[in-house]
Give the backbone structure.
Amino acid sequence: FSRICPEVEFRKIYSNLLVQAGDPKNALQQYILLIRREPENSIYYYEAANLFEQLKNMLKAMEFYQKTVQLNENHEEAYIRLGIILKNSKKTKEARKMFQRALYINSHNSTASYWLGIILMENMDYKSALTHFEPALRNPDYKVKTLVARGECMILMNREYEAEPEL
């Protein structure tokens, strides 16, 4: 590496190309090297966490997402990914905190709203769950799931007549 080809710039470009080419293991190696060169850059930790998640190494993914939010307290996507991993690990209280933090950063975040609604529904707080499901209806990735969850909440609240259009 030299002034003409700086190491950090090269590794950034190369790691992105590896991700696009579908080679997460080698891309992860590049991000680890970038972290060693610039340990205060939260973007590298976030990208490495995504790659660990793709490789099904959830413990490492959680570790790197936590480091991401430690370096950048306003990284809402890292809070969401961390919350989803915690929710899938049956750590509902911790997951709820992550989703609430993401919503604190961006109150219109439909993904965090959906997952927080699911947690509230599981805790039998149906009214609050319905409130959190509202923003999630605007997200096409969650619209069908949200409608079904809203219908389920309404049925559990003995409001079957309102649940019918949702389902």
